[in-house]
Amino acid sequence: MLAVQSNTRFQVKPLYMQVRDALLERIKDGQWRPGASLPSEIDLYRQLGVSLGTLRKALGVLENEQLIVREPGRGTFVRDHQAAQALGRFNPIRSADGAPLRGQVKSRKVKLTSPTPAEKAALRLQAGEQVVRIHRIRVLDERPFAYEQIALSERRFPGLAGEAGFPDELEELAQDRGMILARAEAKVRLAPASSAAAQALSLAERAPVLSVERLAFDTDQEPIETMTAYYNLHDEYCRLELR
């Protein structure tokens, strides 16, 4: 049975959101692994002691958050964020057919270092905490098209800076570490290329590029990654999609 919070002078979550949280905990603690099938709706609402309508509303929230996949005639499944169709969920750069445009990682530099003031604030770091800083160049048809500057909390990704290889896509990396990527906030603007971005993208310094500043959060609404990426999108098969 679901333990429902008692009424106090503080506002409590609606029951369907409490059900959503209870279901999410089962995903996070590994009871339901990525790709696994959830029990039937009848079994779930009996287990939780709520109405079928409340359960379906909670499942709808999880589906909207892209944490589960509901397939008519087959059932409901935990979304596998390492599956090919799930990657690039928070990537606004699209090809002409609408697919996420990731390219291939040509080079990657990783180091453990102190955060900038902006990174400390964005990642809610405590005094003395460090970040794993990643500089990465992506290519399309051997042409550099993206330069990414990434900072991850070392507390959330311990030992990552010393690993020889790890997933380049945030969805995969988070899932490997037992975290589920829930949402991201992005700021997009046309900006002059910095010296580092211009060199990485084979452009003249201060040439116009698309700049995307992204802050990604897990299901506990805790920030796990901040990224600034510069894109050289002069080719007609590239487009921007904001969702």
Task: Explain what you see.
By secondary structure, this protein is of the alpha+beta class. Helix content is 22%, strand content 32%. The protein has 6 helices and 10 strands, in the order αααββββαββαβαβββ. The chain has helices at 15-28, 41-48, 52-64, 117-122, 170-176, 195-200; strands spanning 68-71, 75-78, 93-95, 104-113, 131-140, 143-153, 181-192, 208-218, 223-231, 238-240. The strands form 3 sheets. Strands 4-5-6-9-8-7 form a 6-stranded antiparallel beta sheet. A two-stranded antiparallel ribbon has the order 1-2. Strands 3-10 form a two-stranded antiparallel sheet. α1 packs across α3 and α2 (41-48) crosses α3. The radius of gyration is 20 Å and the shape is elongated. The two termini are 37 Å apart.
Outline of this structure?
This protein has 243 residues and is α+β, with helices and mostly antiparallel strands. Helix 1 (15-28) packs across helix 3 (52-64) and helix 2 (41-48) packs across helix 3 (52-64). The protein contains six helices and ten strands, in the order αααββββαββαβαβββ.
What average pLDDT do the residues reach?
A: 86
N-to-C series of helices and strands? HHHEEEEHEEHEHEEE
The CA-CA distance between the termini, in Å, is 37 Å
Helix content: 10-25%
Helix-and-strand structural type: alpha+beta
Largest sheet: 6 strands, antiparallel
Order of adjacent strands in the largest pleated sheet:
4-5-6-9-8-7
Shape: elongated
Helical segment count: 6
